[in-house]
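INTERNAL AUDIT FORM
Audit reference: QA-55
Scope: verify that the stored structure record matches its stored sequence.
Auditor: D.O.
Record contents follow.
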Amino acid sequence: MTAWRILAAPMALLCTFVASVSAHAGHGMAHPWQLGLQEPVTPVAVQINDFHNLLLVIITVIAVFVTLLMIYVMVKFNAKANPIPRTTTHNTLLEVLWTAIPILILVVIAIPSFKLLYFADTTKDAEMTIKAVGHQWYWSYEYPDHGDFTFDAAMLEKEELQPGQPRLLTTDETVVLPVNTNIRLLIAADDVLHAWAMPSFGVKLDAVPGRLNETWVRVEKEGTYYGQCSELCGTGHGFMPIMVKVVSKEAFATWVKTAKEEYASRDEKSSVKLAAANDSAAE
């Protein structure tokens, strides 16, 4: 009973630690001491997480087997245990096994890998489309199915952050998406290579100048999620975050009405300023 009490305290502490880390992992961003991947909130991210767990089991079994095999060889076939070395140089059965077994392991890995690649790359029955364009160093977003309005999203500086907003991940404008909706995501760039990466969505796709790449998301949980540009795109590479807020379909419809007016008025002001600047230059 005493031994159980001695073990109970560290076990309880470990369970509390794991629970707290798992709870933090569900906030749409990475956290210190997080265990595993970020919480998956799309079908693609769920399959990526499952595939990761499968690979973890496979590589753990391989690592343990090879370690035990090396220990066995070092103990049984060292110079002290075998003063007269054996002269065997070939073993047909072993050579067949160490060739066939790795092939079978690769097949076991390849089948779900190819299925996942196809699933992640195929957009089925898209209900709406948004376009993300990478710039040095911010993102702009277009909603062609909802009035074709556009806005830019740049990182907030440290002094601009509100309490609770993560540093280097918060943007001045937020991408808003409806929950449980098949969304086609078009990704491009206008200067250099960028990459739109959102770990909780299972998305990491290059933004290439002159090319339109496509993927899809279906977010199944409301919340705020964070990502970053994952391509070395210049000195501002580390200051190009992505912030996505997933809301109910009703809240999204309300936001779209507001966004149409807000971003349209901004465009009008920008056009007036540009025209005035051109007139001044002409004079």
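Auditor finding: record pair retrieved intact. Confidence is low (pLDDT under 50) at residues 1-25, 269-283.
Action required: none
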